Amino acid sequence: MRGDFSMAPCARPPVVSVFHIWRRRIFAGFAAFTVVLALGGCNAMKLGYQQGDRLAYWWVDRYVDVTDDQEPPTREAIARFFSWHRRAQLPEIANVLTRVKSEVAGPVDASMVRHAREDTQRLGRQAFENAIPDLADLMLTLTPEQIQRMESKFNESNAKYRKEFLKSDPQARSNARFDKVMDYAKLVYGKFSDDQAQKIRAAMGPYMQGADARYAERVKRQQEWLGIAREVSTTHPPKSQVEDMLRKYADHWQRPAAERAQIRQANEAGVDLTVTIANLTTPEQKAHAVDRFQKWIDDTRSLMREAGPSQASK
Prior knowledge:
This protein has 14 helices and no strands. By secondary structure, it is mainly alpha-helical. It starts with 30 loop residues before the first helix and ends in a 9-residue tail after the last helix. It has helices spanning 31-34, 45-50, 52-64, 71-88, 90-104, 110-139, 144-165, 170-189, 194-202, 205-208, 211-235, 239-254, 261-280, 283-305. 72% of the residues lie in helices and 0% in strands.
């Protein structure tokens, strides 16, 4: 890592996806690139996107400690991705936001939430496909020490996740997840009354039952990613073979196997909870959601008109 590179993250994660409220799934190991699909950060969507190339590089460097030789192609790959994303995906994101804006104005049903989830999965897969050649190039240069660092960072992240969301005390575990759910709900709808909050908490039971299964899937995705990295580092296969490995990885997690019924149940519980929250809201809260989505739409269209994300200092 260059000594003059600096990154000052916000108190909350620098880029937070609006679509989390609609149960978005993210490919593990791809956060450095799917960061650009996020639609809000530090309460400033445009700032987060405009600095997205720096944030993405910071994420990659944090996980693998980019070498001097790796830095130029990594920065170039991220710049290419942002250029493509601005042209190819921001218009689609604006369309999705426009549709969801009309939906949050009235009663919400499960099909609407599933539709939004399918949109984000589709956009995420398109983004992954676009980045595969550059991801393959990077993976072919990773050293065993960098892969070990990546594993250590995964372990740190998992320890933090367990501490926050998998507490041994059931009530403490429920409280932590409730707080996170309410953060996302307030992001869209604004403030909730105590009565509404109590009803949301009461509706969380089925969603909470999937907590351990979600964590197990998280760890399994990470281990599979590390397995690919180690195989590439050891065997040095042709780039085309690495690309095939990455596509199979994405296929495996986007099209779950039949035995992963617990995850499907957890996802459906998330859909049901989202529907419950949406339909508990008052006309004033729905108006807040419409206004919020309109601002995101305006920001997205403004970003589409800009020349491109800032280039990090070299």
